[in-house]
């Protein structure tokens, strides 16, 4: 199992060499804490698994889009996979060039596609015929040829912890149904301002073994053969991301060795450059949400641990019924079976239900683990709560890489007295 960067010394939880109580004292709570060396280790594991195969790692920005995290991954050699104009802006701010960018997503606006063309992105992943036609017209207006890839929906069954994170099954909004690919490839003859440079797929998230790939890869390879037979200059084969990480004690990492063996063989058969789009795999275990216990409560025969973090800070348990391990930062004697809940005015505001926990008291610190992916990036200001700080730890040093929002930030773009206009 990959080291997570979090360990105990004399009963105190540390992020690499920094004790979490010291962080809480300096930065406050709730705060996201990320371990830089865990991200480095994860990236190098993936790169090593594909050594010898022409490949590019394009980090899925949606997992964690903090500029410092993006800069760290750029320094390691990663490109990025983006799904919005805002993510393109972030990537450029973090030092990525257009050639480092693959632009995915089913609902790109004309302005977003224009920004991608102006930036000179490596590929725009097309997910519908209508999008393809719109992109061709836009490229014609700009006098350029848009480099595209077709995202194929291979329509295979994928076992994931939650239905919302399956993207490669029949009936999903993502990609081009595999039976429609040949027709779309033929349509390209009528669209001179797009050039087909790649084909790809993405099966979903938290995929723990290579079985879905065994079913999906032949369908992707068939689509690639169709495109090449039609004379298109296909250079890239994109297999997406979705590699599983363990959230609970009974869960295991994705089998990278098996995964890489299957994917490398398929890529070798095509001679194409392989694109990988990991997100969660690189950053999830690197992060924890540091929170302080506000109150202990007993009601209707149940115990509650009330924390200063809420579902607006980490929505995964409420949205996906996701499990996150929760630890006392400083070891404490005894256990209690309790719900861990936040201050949000919603019954869905919880981090754990009926969980055996350390017997924490008001004022104690807790760490909600494996929160480096889809934590801060999915946070909100619900209940008019400022979003938490973000901290990056590297060895025995740390830096605030995302300042805690203030109440003034909440209303900065609003106007109490509207300035009326006439249509």
Which helices and strands appear, and what pairs or packs with what?
Blueprint: E1 6-9, E2 12-15, E3 18-19, H1 20-27, E4 31-35, H2 36-49, E5 55-60, H3 67-76, E6 79-82, H4 85-93, E7 101-103, H5 110-119, E8 123-126, H6 129-142, E9 146-153, E10 176-177, H7 181-187, E11 194-200, H8 211-229, E12 236-238, H9 256-270, E13 273-276, H10 280-283, E14 287-299, E15 302-307, H11 316-320, E16 326-328, E17 335-341, E18 350-358, E19 365-369, E20 389-394, E21 397-402, H12 407-411
Parallel strand pairs: 4-20, 5-6, 5-13, 6-7, 7-8, 8-9, 9-10, 9-11, 11-12, 12-13, 15-17
Antiparallel strand pairs: 1-2, 2-3, 4-14, 14-15, 14-19, 16-19, 17-18, 20-21
Helix pairs in contact: 2-3, 5-6, 8-9
What is the 3D shape? globular
Distance between the termini: 61 Å
Tally the beta strands.
21
Percentage beta strand: 25-35%
Can you describe this structure in just a few lines?
The chain has helices at 20-27, 36-49, 67-76, 85-93, 110-119, 129-142, 181-187, 211-229, 256-270, 280-283, 316-320, 407-411; strands at 6-9, 12-15, 18-19, 31-35, 55-60, 79-82, 101-103, 123-126, 146-153, 176-177, 194-200, 236-238, 273-276, 287-299, 302-307, 326-328, 335-341, 350-358, 365-369, 389-394, 397-402. With 423 residues, the protein is an alpha/beta fold. Helix 2 packs parallel to helix 3 (67-76), helix 5 (110-119) packs across helix 6 (129-142) and helix 8 (211-229) packs parallel to helix 9 (256-270).
């Amino acid at each position: 199992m990959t080291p997570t960067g979090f360990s105990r010394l004399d009963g105190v939880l540390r992020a690499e060499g920094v004790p979490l109580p010291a962080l809480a004292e300096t930065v406050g709570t709730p705060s996201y804490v990320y371990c830089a060396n865990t991200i480095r280790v994860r990236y190098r594991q993936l790169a090593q698994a594909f050594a010898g195969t022409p490949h590019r790692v394009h980090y899925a920005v949606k997992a964690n889009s903090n500029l410092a995290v993006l800069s760290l991954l750029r320094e390691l050699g990663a490109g990025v996979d983006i799904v919005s104009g805002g993510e393109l802006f972030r990537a450029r701010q973090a030092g990525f060039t257009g050639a480092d960018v693959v632009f995915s997503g089913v609902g790109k606006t004309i302005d977003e596609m224009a920004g991608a063309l102006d930036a000179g992105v490596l590929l725009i992943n097309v997910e519908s015929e209508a999008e393809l036609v719109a992109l061709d017209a836009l490229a014609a207006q700009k006098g350029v040829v848009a480099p595209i890839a077709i995202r194929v929906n291979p329509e295979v069954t994928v076992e994931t912890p939650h239905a919302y994170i399956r993207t490669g099954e029949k009936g999903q909004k993502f990609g081009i149904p595999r039976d429609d690919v040949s027709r779309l490839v033929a349509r390209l003859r009528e669209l001179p301002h797009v050039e087909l440079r790649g084909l790809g797929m993405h099966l979903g998230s938290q995929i723990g073994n290579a079985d879905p790939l065994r079913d999906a890869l032949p369908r992707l390879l068939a689509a690639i053969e169709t495109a090449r037979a039609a004379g298109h200059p296909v250079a890239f084969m994109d297999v997406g991301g979705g590699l599983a990480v363990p959230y609970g004690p009974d869960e295991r990492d994705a089998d990278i060795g098996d995964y890489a063996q299957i994917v490398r063989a398929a890529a070798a058969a095509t001679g194409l450059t392989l694109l990988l789009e990991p997100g969660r795999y690189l950053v999830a275990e690197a992060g924890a949400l540091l929170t302080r216990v506000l109150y202990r409560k007993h009601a209707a025969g149940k115990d509650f641990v009330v924390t200063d973090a809420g579902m607006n800070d980490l929505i995964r348990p409420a949205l996906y019924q996701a499990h996150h391990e929760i630890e006392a930062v400083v070891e404490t004697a005894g256990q209690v079976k309790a719900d861990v809940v936040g201050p949000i005015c919603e019954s869905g505001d919880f981090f754990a239900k009926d969980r055996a926990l350390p017997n924490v008291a008001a004022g104690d610190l807790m760490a909600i683990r494996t929160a480096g992916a889809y934590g801060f990036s999915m946070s909100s200001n619900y209940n008019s709560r400022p979003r938490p700080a973000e901290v990056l730890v590297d060895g025995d040093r740390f830096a605030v890489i995302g300042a805690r929002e203030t109440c003034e930030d909440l209303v900065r773009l609003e106007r109490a007295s509207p300035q009326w206009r006439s249509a």
